[in-house]
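User: I'll paste a sequence; please echo it back and then give the predicted structure.

Assistant: Echoing your sequence first, then the prediction.
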Amino acid sequence: MTFQEHKDKNARSKKLLLWFAMISMIMVFAGLTSAYVVSKSRADWKSFEMPSAFIFSTAVILLSSLTFHLAKKAIEKDKRNTTTWLLLSTLALGVLFVILQFEGFKELIKIGLYPTGPTSTVTTSFLYVVVVVHLTHLAGGLISILVVIYNHFKQKYKSGQTLGLELGAMFWHFLDFLWLYLFLFLYFFK
């Protein structure tokens, strides 16, 4: 086996492992949204308006996917400065997304929708669980972006050598589209 064949096999293995992880996450959220649908028939189910911070966070997370994609394209052309700027922008947008999620929680609490306690409802408990589980996965995504940025500064990426950046981008895009699914589900299935 040549070095290139070994390198290609290693890359395929890592991508396959990432796909398995993402599929397992899909199963978790499929279970949560299924439980949400079943629970919606309860007599104590309450409808709610989606907090505006969640709407803004959706735009922010989609923009972060674009910046990560453009960073991948830039490094493929060995544009290091552009890649640096785009990776740092992706990280900043990811952090802004998390901040906006917490602002959304504040909006829910302000209108009396608490996740736990005597005044909580099954509706808000589900909403909080879904968003917090996504934020937990997003923390992993932010860590992966930090690792990608660190490796970029160590000059581990260049045209033809982008595996770590590709894996980070795959996972980030997955998290972004997962949030888009959750947002649309929660927005239209109240």
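The mean pLDDT is 90. The domain at 3-42+51-188 is CATH 1.20.120.80 (Four Helix Bundle (Hemerythrin (Met), subunit A)).
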